[in-house]
Amino acid sequence: MNRLKTNKYIGGVVIALAILNVVLLSFLWVGHQEIQKTRPENGLKVLEERLNLTDEQKEQVKSLRDVHFEEIQKFRRASQEARQELHNLWGSDHSQDKVDVLTKRLGELQVSQEKATYDHFAQIRALCSPEQQATFDKLIKDVLRQGSQGGPRNGQRPFPNDRGRGGPPPPRDGR
């Protein structure tokens, strides 16, 4: 009889854990859907909706966007190559001049990428009517303001050891 009670108890625990897994997976799936809504490819849809772009404007913006992303990818690849070359210098005898050249190159690539992004948005703005431009300006200001309020590490997830304000953790139970 005791064995029967134990089996019922284990069976109940297994069923409860299965239900808990289903609930947890549902929350994760819904959270994943929310993350998908904020991906860059959805930025084009937001832009189209908020600015109420015409079909012709949508095509022009898509074309500009495709060219822009190709250009940005080139900058990112070049930056990654320069960064890799810089980090490879750790294990060898190197001159400070080589480090200076590579870090300067990384800075130039970052400047070029920022300029390309500015030019890209200026081109999109130029496609807009005056009413759309006013909405575009407000939208860009909102995006920039949200980016500056991103919290630790500019809105990215904190490192596991980040304590928020940099201090030690609070004492536990008077210890």
From TrEMBL:
<keyword id="KW-0812">Transmembrane</keyword>
<dbReference type="Pfam" id="PF13801">
    <property type="entry name" value="Metal_resist"/>
</dbReference>
<protein>
    <recommendedName>
        <fullName>Periplasmic heavy metal sensor</fullName>
    </recommendedName>
</protein>
<dbReference type="InterPro" id="IPR012899">
    <property type="entry name" value="LTXXQ"/>
</dbReference>
<keyword id="KW-0472">Membrane</keyword>
<dbReference type="InterPro" id="IPR025961">
    <property type="entry name" value="Metal_resist"/>
</dbReference>
<feature type="region of interest" description="Disordered">
    <location>
        <begin position="143"/>
        <end position="175"/>
    </location>
</feature>
<feature type="transmembrane region" description="Helical">
    <location>
        <begin position="9"/>
        <end position="30"/>
    </location>
</feature>
<dbReference type="GO" id="GO:0042597">
    <property type="term" value="C:periplasmic space"/>
</dbReference>
<keyword id="KW-1133">Transmembrane helix</keyword>
